[in-house]
User: Which sequence fits this backbone?
């Protein structure tokens, strides 16, 4: 008697059902890549802003203007106590591609001390909860140096 090899139709259906169940349970873990990519992009921008601010401060220190308030300029970057001002022009001169890749908007136009950066084309609601916030230096002490923070709660 010849032995037949292969699978029966029922066995194939059972395997397909099991694969379907695994796909349904595993898919949500892999569907959230867009949010993770946005958060990683904001982390990268924060690193770029922090790095540029540190380099600008170093150049300002070499020129001896790190203790001065506003009004000084180092290589096209307007300064506040050695760090870039919180304007898209000053930060754009310090960071290559900042103004072409990101949207900037003022947080408090009256004080002019904070600016947010977010993805190009984001609407006003998304800007509130998915951005990098740069606060310019307000004094000579380390506690009043420029700061960069991230809000990813709405990304």
Assistant:
């Amino acid at each position: 008697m010849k032995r037949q090899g292969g699978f029966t139709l029922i066995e194939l259906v059972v395997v397909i059902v099991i694969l379907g169940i695994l796909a349904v349970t595993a898919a949500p873990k892999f569907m959230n890549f867009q949010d993770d990519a946005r958060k990683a992009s904001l982390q990268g921008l924060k690193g770029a802003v922090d790095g540029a601010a540190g380099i600008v401060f170093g150049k300002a220190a070499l020129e001896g203007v790190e203790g001065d308030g506003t009004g000084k300029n180092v290589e096209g970057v307007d300064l506040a106590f050695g760090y870039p001002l919180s304007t898209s022009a000053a930060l754009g001169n310090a960071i290559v591609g900042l103004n072409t890749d990101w949207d900037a908007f003022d947080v408090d136009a009256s004080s002019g001390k904070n600016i947010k950066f977010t993805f190009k084309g984001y609407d006003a609601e998304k800007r509130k909860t998915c951005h990098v916030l740069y606060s310019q230096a307000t004094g000579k002490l380390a506690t009043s140096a420029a700061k960069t923070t991230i809000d990813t709660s709405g990304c």
